């Protein structure tokens, strides 16, 4: 079949013999590429007609996604096969052959990346389509697949570029000599790439050990944040007010943080009430029970009302109620506060906290407060103008008090 194809191309080249030799050779190569294009379209149309709801649909979608890189590789193969009978000069033929090889290697790497993405998306779609799916299991698979997919994209890209560069003879020789003798250069390159390698290995470790998963709710820098995206080098965290934290992926292996949905999304919410000592706890506890049991956000597992603390002014009542997720727990706590505050205001005003100030009076206490002498002891002071200063001729060290102008030694 190859011989027949080459014979056909030779005859086509002879048809363009009236043109300059280089132009006729280029036209022949264009015809070879056109034949590859038509052949690829014909095969694609046959494949997309495969029936089936599951496997057939996957084959059709895989074919449609892969048709572009596969079509380009078929064109490269057909054109490369036609080069020996193209009649091009030797140096041009060698350069064209090398360019086709480099392009084929790059398209092969691109096809591998596309195939990896298609297979990973199909796997996630299959996991997500299960009726009895577990939220934790789904997010675990999503995290592993996405992190490993990004890592595989990086590795495929590095291998593809390396393979393309190795087709150049001078680069290959320099590369071999560099790996053979450049110890200092390797050390410098390793130190320069340390952050990249650290985050790369951290991403692989996170994909395996699962300290965080997609859509996990974590606490970072005092903010609630959801894990929105995990790449090979950083993690995107979505805050409740739509801000984004961009955090290096190695942070989650080197620092402590809170993960509120690690094993389960369910949480126990806590509401604190500061009430007066006259608060009727039986009535308040019963009203809280009615509020929580009638709330659709309560999951029916945990509920309790306890006096957790007290001080000189108020007592602290702790109310706990569980919910299916962190956001539902937040909304449930807000609903409990709103309803119990309205109940205390309308039905139990004596339970509202108040300030207390007590004055205790006694006869002796009044005597003390009204007796000026009890405030401070009397102080003996000299009359105004009595200080005369040092006496003249007293050696500079004498002082005296005078009464009617007479000094005393």
TrEMBL record:
Q: Its domain of life?
A: Bacteria
What are the record's GO terms for cellular component? membrane
**Domain Mechanosensitive ion channel MscS: start-end pairs:** 196-262
User: Where's it mainly located?
Assistant: membrane
Compartmental location: Membrane
Residue stretches of biased makeup (Gly residues): 392-409
Spell out the Gene3D superfamilies in the cross-references. 1.10.287.1260, 2.30.30.60
Transmembrane regions listed in the UniProt entry:
15-36, 70-88, 100-120, 174-197
Its keywords, alphabetically, are: Membrane, Transmembrane, Transmembrane helix
Pfam families recorded: MS_channel_2nd (PF00924)
One annotated GO molecular function is: mechanosensitive monoatomic ion channel activity
Record carries keyword Transmembrane helix:
yes
Q: Where is this region: Disordered?
A: 385-409
Among its keywords, does the record have Transmembrane helix?
A: yes
PANTHER family membership: INNER MEMBRANE PROTEIN, YNAI-RELATED MECHANOSENSITIVE ION CHANNEL
- What is this protein identified as? Mechanosensitive ion channel protein MscS
């Amino acid at each position: 079949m190859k011989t027949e194809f080459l014979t056909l191309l030779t005859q086509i080249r002879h048809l363009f013999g009236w043109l300059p030799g280089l132009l006729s050779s280029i036209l022949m190569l264009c015809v070879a590429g056109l034949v590859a294009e038509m052949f690829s379209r014909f095969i694609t149309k046959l494949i997309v007609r495969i029936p089936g709801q599951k496997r057939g649909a996957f084959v059709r979608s895989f074919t449609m996604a892969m048709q572009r890189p596969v079509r380009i590789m078929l064109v490269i193969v057909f054109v490369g096969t036609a080069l020996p009978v193209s009649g091009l000069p030797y140096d041009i033929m060698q350069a064209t052959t090398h360019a086709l090889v480099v392009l084929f290697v790059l398209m092969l790497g691109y096809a591998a990346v596309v195939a990896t993405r298609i297979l990973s998306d199909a796997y996630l779609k299959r996991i997500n389509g299960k009726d009895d799916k577990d939220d934790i299991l789904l997010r675990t698979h999503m995290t592993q697949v996405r992190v490993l997919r990004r890592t595989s994209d990086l590795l495929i890209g590095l291998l593809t570029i390396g393979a393309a560069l190795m087709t150049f003879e001078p680069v290959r020789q320099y590369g071999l000599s560099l790996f053979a003798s450049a110890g200092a250069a390797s050390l410098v390159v390793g130190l320069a790439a340390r952050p990249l390698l650290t985050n790369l290995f951290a991403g692989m470790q996170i994909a395996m050990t699962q300290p965080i998963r997609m859509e996990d709710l974590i606490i970072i820098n005092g903010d609630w944040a959801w894990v929105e995206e995990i790449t090979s080098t950083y993690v995107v965290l979505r805050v409740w007010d739509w801000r984004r934290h961009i955090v290096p992926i190695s942070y989650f292996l080197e620092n402590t943080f809170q993960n509120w949905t690690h094993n389960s999304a369910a949480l126990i919410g806590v509401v604190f009430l500061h009430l007066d000592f006259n608060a009727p706890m039986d009535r308040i506890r019963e009203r809280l029970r009615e509020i929580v049991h009638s709330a659709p956000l309560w999951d029916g597992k945990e509920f309790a009302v306890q006096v957790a603390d007290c001080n000189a002014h108020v007592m602290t009542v702790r109310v706990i109620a569980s919910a299916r997720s962190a956001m539902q727990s937040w909304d449930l706590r807000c609903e409990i506060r709103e309803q119990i505050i309205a109940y205390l205001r309308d039905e139990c005003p004596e339970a509202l906290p108040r300030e207390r100030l007590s004055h205790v009076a006694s006869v002796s206490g009044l005597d003390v407060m009204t007796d000026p002498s009890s405030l401070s002891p009397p102080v003996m002071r000299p009359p105004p103008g009595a200080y005369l200063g040092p006496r003249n001729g007293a050696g500079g060290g004498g002082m005296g008090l005078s009464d009617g102008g007479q000094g005393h030694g």
